[in-house]
Every structure is written in structure tokens, then in C-alpha cells.
Write a structure and sequence with these properties.
2 domains; 31% helix; alpha/beta; binds magnesium ion; binds adenosine-5'-triphosphate
């Protein structure tokens, strides 16, 4: 099955493509492999949630993809720009015109001495657009039109993040990155802000990669990618389909990433529940591959699995 896409978008080169992406940090002689050969493709106009345990490499990935940091190895292109060979001049253009970024810390996103409208107008001015009308349009899109003439200090956290999203979208970026944009907000507020962000991005056709711990957002986007130990491991694709009774129902299917060498990572729960360890039996079927616990004293019911492996060996 091909991943579901948003609406009318035609086929384009993916907006984000990472192959075997590696980022190694050296601090005090200690090496940390924050990204260990990460593969990821995000199509134009897609909205993807990135989830994973603390320290799994989510922020590192976003910092690289938004041009704030450089990879140690591998390949990465965003909006058609090769991030490994990009010159300083290209980087400036990339950050001004092709990508937008929202940080988790509300205070980091906006200039405190400018009003909301002035904050949003800044990237528009840089891009050479009509500032005031567009700034108000964007604030309206994020449902904070009434905050236009107030400074960040006079706004709630949720309002600040909405203004921050409007600001990040103001340069009409192809891709919006947001690293836990609602991390400092309470539940009620974060749901509303994430909804406003996804709605705005959809209206503008912006590709979005958002890091979130909020299960509600990951349940509402079509694609949720799990990152584990600096690699993408599994992903969940959601689509709606018409059931036999004519009603629309939501279907969620879990996928795992397969790299060019054929390596896949099984979800932790599968490994645990089936007691898979050290090695597993594989059986190739016409349309799928079976993975079985490598129990040498396999009961009769497992005969099929054993036969499959024997064929492979002969
Ligand atoms: N500037 C840095 N110098 C050294 N190590 C770093 C640096 N930034 C991140 N790391 C390490 O890289 C790994 C990945 O960190 P990263 O910040 O990407 O995780 P994360 O998934 O964003 O976690 P969280 O959910 O807590 O924000 C961690 O082991 C972290 O300690
Ligand atoms: Mg982080």
C-alpha cells in the first residue's frame, strides 16, 4: 500500500529524504551516536508526527533537517537542497525561504519587544511580500487575530505558540519543523494549538514534521514515525475507509522500515510477546515473509515454519 497523501497534491520529489543519516557528537572525549543511519522519506504536503523516547535523536534530526546543525555522514535533502554540500550562502537562503521552525520553548520563538503582527511581518518583509495584510491573514488562520497588537509577554503560552507558528509559516516555507511545540502547554491548550497548526499547514500545502509526546496529535495525523536509538523503527499509517455498513471508519496499520540492505526492526512488543531472541526462522510465502521464534523443539504446529527454513537452507 502506498502511504496516504493529502488531497490533490501531484507527484513531486519527496520534500524530506534521509539515507543512512549519521550524527556523532564528541564531548569531553566521549562519543555519542545521536543518529545511527537513519532513513526517512516525507512526501510533499504530508504531515508527519515523530515520536520516540527521550534521547532517541528527535531534536538532533530536526536540527539537521532545518539547517541548524550538520550531519556527520549519510545523505539528506530537504526541499531539494542537499544538506551535506550546502554552502553558507545556500544555508541562509534555505532557512529564510524553504523551511520554518518552531521551538518548544515559547520564549525562543518570538522577539519579545515586537508585537505579534510585527513578529509575523518580519519574515514576510525579508521575503519581500506585503507585510501587514499577510501577517494578519496568518494570525487569523491560527485563530489569534485578536492578539495582533500585543507583545509576547502579554499573551498566554498557547497564544504565543500560535503566533510562533504563524511566524514560521510567514516566509511561505515548503517544510515546517516543530520540536515539541506544545511541550510547555497544558493538555487542553496543546490540543488546540496542534489542531490550528495542522489546519494551517493543510491550507497552505506545507509539509510538516512535528516532534510530539502528545498521543492525540499522533493519533490524528496520517503518519506517525517512531524513532529509536537514532533510527526510524516503526511507523503507523492511518486512513479512513468505507466499511460494509457504509460508515466511515479509521484504519491504523503499523509498518516497519526496511533499509536498502534489507534490514528491518521488529516492534519491541512483538519481540517480547513471541519470545524472539538471538535468531528467528524466516519463511517466504508468495505475498509475505513469516518470522517465527527459533525454537529447535518446535511443536508440530510450527512444522510449516521449519519447512520454510529448510527450503532456504537447501
Ligand atoms: N550538542 C550535543 N552534544 C553532545 N551530545 C548531544 C548533543 N545534543 C544531543 N546530544 C545527545 O544525542 C542524543 C540524542 O539527543 P536528542 O536531543 O536528539 O534527543 P531527543 O529525542 O530530542 O530527546 P528529548 O525527547 O529528551 O528531547 C542524546 O544522547 C543526547 O545526549
Ligand atoms: Mg528533543
Amino acid at each position: 500500500m502506498t502511504p496516504p497523501r493529502r488531497g490533490h497534491l501531484e507527484h513531486h520529489e519527496p520534500d524530506i529524504r534521509c539515507e543512512d543519516l549519521v550524527r556523532i557528537y564528541h564531548t569531553d572525549g566521549v562519543e555519542v551516536q545521536a543518529l545511527q543511519g537513519l532513513n526517512l522519506t516525507v512526501d510533499r504536503g504530508d504531515l508527519v508526527a515523530l515520536v520516540g523516547a527521550s534521547g532517541s535523536g528527535k531534536s538532533t534530526l530536526l536540527a539537521i533537517l532545518s539547517g541548524h546543525d550538520r550531519p556527520t555522514g549519510g545523505r539528506a535533502t530537504v526541499a531539494g537542497v542537499d544538506l551535506l554540500t550546502m554552502t553558507p550562502k545556500q544555508r541562509v537562503h534555505f532557512q529564510r525561504h524553504l523551511v520554518g521552525f518552531v521551538w518548544q520553548q515559547t520564549s525562543r520563538n518570538l522577539f519579545p519587544f515586537l508585537t505579534a503582527a510585527e513578529n509575523v511581518a518580519m519574515p514576510i518583509a525579508i521575503a519581500g511580500g506585503k507585510q501587514d495584510a499577510r501577517a494578519r491573514e496568518l494570525l487569523d488562520l491560527l485563530d489569534v487575530a485578536d492578539c495582533a497588537d500585543r507583545r509576547p509577554g502579554q499573551l498566554s503560552g498557547g497564544q504565543q505558540q500560535r503566533v510562533a507558528i504563524a511566524t514560521a509559516l510567514a516566509g511561505s516555507p515548503r517544510v515546517l519543523f516543530a520540536d515539541e511545540p506544545t511541550g510547555e502547554l497544558d493538555e487542553a491548550n496543546s490540543g488546540a494549538v496542534l489542531e490550528a497548526m495542522t489546519h494551517a499547514a493543510e491550507q497552505l500545502g506545507t509539509t510538516v514534521l512535528v516532534v510530539t509526546h502528545d498521543p492525540r496529535i499522533s493519533e490524528h495525523v496520517r503518519r506517525t514515525i517512531q524513532i529509536r536509538d537514532g533510527r526510524t523503527s516503526t511507523e503507523v499509517l492511518r486512513r479512513s475507509e468505507v466499511a460494509d455498513d457504509g460508515r466511515l471508519r479509521l484504519v491504523a496499520e503499523e509498518y516497519t522500515v526496511i533499509d536498502r540492505a534489507g534490514r528491518i526492526q521488529l516492534p519491541e512488543s512483538h519481540v517480547r510477546d513471541l519470545g524472539l531472541e538471538h535468531r528467528v526462522r524466516l519463511r517466504k510465502e508468495p505475498d509475505h515473509v513469516g518470522v517465527y521464534a527459533a525454537d529447535d523443539r518446535a511443536p508440530v504446529g510450527r512444522e510449516g515454519a521449519r519447512r520454510g527454513m529448510d527450503e532456504e537452507e537447501s
